[in-house]
Design brief:
This protein folds into two domains: about 1-35; about 45-130, Sandwich (Immunoglobulin-like). The chain is about 25% helix and about 35% strand. The protein has helices spanning about 1-35, 100-105; strands at about 45-50, 55-60, 70-75, 80-85, 95-100, 110-115, 125-130.
Length: about 130
């Protein structure tokens, strides 16, 4: 007669374990709700041509970036990558660079900033054709 009591004890222990697991799962979901939304890019990008080539100036108009991002330079007509660099911008921080005429070879160039902390569609932030 003790056998049914022992089985009953095991069933009770299993139910308590499942209840503890369920409470832990609820805690995780509540923590996920408290996560702040990603910081989205707020960029000001200006372009110009000078005698040396194309000039790009990028200013962060938003919050400090939570992680690094990639500044990618492309040939705009065939999307071939010319170069990239990692950066992390503070509020108001500016970066600028020149793509020399020798590199451009009379073709349009474009820039795209790819953040590491969220997925962003690949669409040029700016492009220019200096002939």
């Amino acid at each position: 007669m003790t056998f049914p009591k022992m089985v009953m004890g095991l069933c009770t222990a299993t139910v308590l374990s499942l209840a503890s697991f369920s409470a832990a799962a609820q805690t995780v979901s509540q923590a996920e709700v408290a996560v702040t939304p990603p910081t989205f890019l707020q960029l000001e990008v200006t372009t110009a041509c000078n005698d040396k080539g194309a000039v790009f100036k990028i200013t962060n108009r938003g919050a400090k970036w939570p992680q690094t991002g990639y500044l990618k330079l492309f040939r705009a007509d065939d999307r071939s990558l010319l170069g990239e660099r990692r950066l992390r911008l503070a509020p108001g921080q500016k970066v600028s660079f020149v793509v020399k005429n020798k590199v451009m070879q009379g073709r349009p160039v474009a820039v795209w900033v790819k953040p590491e902390w969220y997925k962003r569609e690949m669409e040029y932030d700016a492009s220019i054709n200096c002939r």
